[in-house]
Request: fold
Amino acid sequence: MKKLVILTGAGISAESGISTFRDAGGLWEKYPVQQVASHDGWLADPELVNRFYNERRRQLFDVKPNRAHELVARLERHFDVAVVTQNVDNLHERAGSTRVVHLHGELMKVTSSRNPDDPDCIETLTRDNFEVQPGQRAKDGSLLRPYIVFFQEAVPMIETAAMLASQADIFVIIGTSLNVYPAAGLVHYVRPGTPIYLIDPNEVDAHMPGVNYIRKKASDGMEELTRLLLGKPEDNE
Ligand code: OAD
Reply:
């Protein structure tokens, strides 16, 4: 089976009702990114940061995967698919994708603030118990923090993602402004000559020649990509 690697960003979840970050009315217009999503912001006010992510988690229960997530999952019937997502939501998994690499962490997980990548300290929250309370501690006694890669922090999954990109037979980019590194640089690991598709209703510069642009929203764009890749629309079974 051909290896298909799909890099996604906030735009794939927009039709599910989750705001993107940098579009008009996006999340970073309402909340200063330095306060709620940077390492310094966490140190300055952990309660504010935990409240912000408690709120994001609550929103996740009200939304569901859209057609784009579903079509991404269905491509596993035809390709060896790896999804590399910058999103911290769980909509790819809920749509049925089985291999999802989260570059920027996962909303439904929390961890130690002393050693965020210690597997023993990573806990998965449940629907009944998703709010981190002020002063709540991780297993190692440090303050419990969101399992989110904040700005100013390293991106541990980037090596896995770069390896996947370098092995791709087809590379697809959906709904990301490609503003945030190192994720935005993944396209440079794709082998020369590999077909690259980019689905986004707005102009995005992939900094790469030969990209096939599909200037549509994620769900319509995925319908078109599926037709292009399979030579027919995906059935609905
Ligand atoms: P951005 O908000 O920067 O970009 C969203 C992209 O989605 C833009 O290119 C939009 O044109 C596009 N878009 C909007 N609606 C769409 C739709 N219906 N279908 C398809 N595309 C659509 O979000 P990201 O690129 O994901 O990190 O942002 C990257 C990272 O910056 C995030 O993971 C987050 C943020 O700060 C952290 O919080 C660590």
